[in-house]
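Dear colleague,

Following up on Tuesday's group meeting, I ran the structure prediction for the two-component complex that the binding team flagged. I've pasted the input sequences exactly as they went in, so you can double-check that nothing got truncated or mislabelled along the way. The structure tokens for the whole assembly follow below. Feel free to forward this to whoever is handling the docking comparison.

Inputs:
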Amino acid sequence: AQSVAQPEDQVNVAEGNPLTVKCTYSVSGNPYLFWYVQYPNRGLQFLLKYITGDNLVKGSYGFEAEFNKSQTSFHLKKPSALVSDSALYFCAVSGNTGFQKLVFGTGTRLLVSP
Amino acid sequence: ETGVTQTPRHLVMGMTNKKSLKCEQHLGHNAMYWYKQSAKKPLELMFVYNFKEQTENNSVPSRFSPECPNSSHLFLHLHTLQPEDSALYLCASSQEGAGGRGNIQYFGAGTRLSVL
């Protein structure tokens, strides 16, 4: 069965600094990997996904993620954080079930200070 | 707006009440989902409907009863809930093709449920 681990409950970063939110996964076969963001009182919003091809995936709002097969990781990154990036971030994986079934991590709260 | 609307946004109910959550998607998608979001836990997939047919029921207690009358609407009927059922209930939709993987799910804002 597929699983996702987000080892950090919270990440703190100063505005303008680079940020990284970590995610590792476990799945048989080739993974489909996703990042979603949740702002207060909102549902989850899609940021980016990796299916195949270039290991560096670019997404919305200047975010990108790097797929590393040997380390089974898919860390979310942004070169320069904004206060408005403060939110809850979820990593998710879809495995070889033949139907879209996303397994989510526990989420990482990103707090960007001015 | 994501094109997925959930009502009500907030719901308080007693353990003996019966209530329903509603979800409507305006995206023309063919798959809809119910998730439960509790603090510090992964999102829990509860039910999946693909072309109006239920394809997934992740050992959800029978006090939760889904209904999908058409591909645009999804309901979650609630009865005799427990306090531990208090959570944010999220609805999502996606367009599923033959491959069935890699498709983006679009989420509603959720219903915050409190069971007293």
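The two ends of chain A are 41 Å apart (CA to CA).

Cheers,
M.
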